[in-house]
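Severity: low
Component: inverse-folding endpoint
Summary: output formatting inconsistent between runs
Steps to reproduce: submit the following structure tokens with default settings.
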């Protein structure tokens, strides 16, 4: 029976790989993606909603403003702190240039980050861009970071000084924001004696598996058949996710669970299996973000990162081995949206608890719905790792 179940799971995986739009590569020690792609109707959706923006906001993270905040807090007269990041708008004009953006692996946003968000939908198309043409894409990258060969404009030079809370709070206050409401992120670099003036924190992906027994198995629900060994001081097993988490509730941690057709009970998230290797990106209400991937149990965790107030997270079904994509029926303005991985979010979190963020992907057999899109992408993604 056990062998039969494995064979059934394998056949099930093949079927889903055929009917979902994914490009995948052979799993190797140094995997690389290929351009092998399917285009199925089963990943289409007619539920796509448009992001609605309000007024442009006053940017508190310009080099000038953070310098003023730093001098206020420390009683210094530094002329200018360094530019750690640039806020950039890419303006692709054709499919080839959009492909270059996708291939760059930059964290891209299709809406401007310095505008008020009235309603965060599934996509945004700038009204100044003719329908049928690619919209603008926004990124926050280091000044010396390689940029794709796509026309771009530097909108602002930033100093993302995320290791001293008093400076971050003062930068927000100087522009009229209440830090406790606006929210911000702090990167703990205690013990780094070389950190004298604010410099860039690399937005690299953190190792989701850790070392030794710290990430043995995974979390997930009872259907996942995984258990997680938690070692080290200041760590707990989170209530909903049963994953590694910090005792500090402001350290982001959580899990992504999937209603598996064979092992789960629909509607009971604690029976769901973990979504493996999904990409999770968390960000504050402005420009700071950080990414990681879930482990075999769907668990994810950020060390030395704290969030206060407003924050957002998104789940993308992409990793070094597979990228899942999906169409939608509103083929006009957002036809280029298909070129990017299927993503769930952005999901809002207002705190103060950030260390037990549970995302459950329920099974939905009705096609042309977003929930079906997410479930299909997660199921196909997991099938690759069976």
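Observed output (run 2 of 3):
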């Amino acid at each position: 029976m056990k062998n039969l179940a494995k064979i059934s799971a394998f056949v099930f995986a093949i079927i889903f790989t055929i009917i979902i739009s994914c490009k995948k590569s052979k799993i190797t020690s140094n995997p690389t993606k290929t351009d092998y792609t399917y285009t199925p109707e089963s990943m289409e959706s007619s539920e796509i909603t448009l992001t609605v923006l309000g007024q442009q906001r006053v940017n508190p993270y310009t080099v000038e403003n953070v310098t003023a905040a730093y001098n206020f807090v420390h009683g210094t007269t530094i002329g200018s702190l360094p530019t750690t990041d640039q806020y950039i708008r890419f303006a692709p004009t054709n499919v080839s240039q959009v492909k270059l953006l996708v291939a760059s692996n930059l964290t891209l946003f299709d809406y401007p980050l310095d505008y008020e968000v009235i309603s965060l939908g599934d996509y945004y198309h700038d009204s100044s861009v003719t329908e049928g043409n690619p919209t603008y894409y926004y990124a926050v990258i280091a000044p010396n970071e390689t940029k794709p060969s796509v026309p771009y404009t530097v909108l602002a030079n930033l100093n993302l000084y995320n290791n001293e809370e008093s400076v971050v709070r003062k930068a927000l206050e100087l522009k009229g924001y209440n830090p406790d409401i606006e929210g911000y992120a702090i990167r703990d670099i205690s013990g780094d004696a070389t950190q004298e003036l604010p410099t860039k924190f690399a937005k690299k992906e953190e190792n989701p598996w850790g070392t030794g027994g710290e990430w043995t198995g995974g979390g997930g629900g009872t259907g996942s058949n995984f258990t997680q060994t938690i070692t080290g001081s200041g760590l707990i097993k989170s209530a909903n996710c049963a994953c590694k988490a910090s005792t500090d509730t402001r350290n982001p941690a959580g899990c992504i669970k999937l209603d598996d057709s064979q092992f789960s009970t629909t509607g009971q998230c604690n029976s769901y299996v973990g979504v493996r290797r999904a990409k999770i990106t968390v960000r504050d209400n402005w420009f700071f973000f950080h990414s990681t991937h879930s482990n075999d149990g769907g668990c994810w965790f950020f060390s030395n990162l704290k969030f206060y107030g407003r924050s957002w997270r998104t789940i993308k079904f992409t990793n070094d081995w597979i990228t899942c994509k999906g169409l939608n029926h509103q083929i006009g303005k957002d036809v280029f949206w298909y070129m990017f991985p299927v993503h769930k979010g952005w999901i809002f979190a207002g705190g103060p608890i950030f260390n037990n963020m549970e995302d459950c992907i329920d099974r939905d057999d009705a096609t042309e719905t977003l929930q079906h899109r997410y479930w299909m992408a997660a199921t196909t993604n997991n099938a690759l790792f069976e």
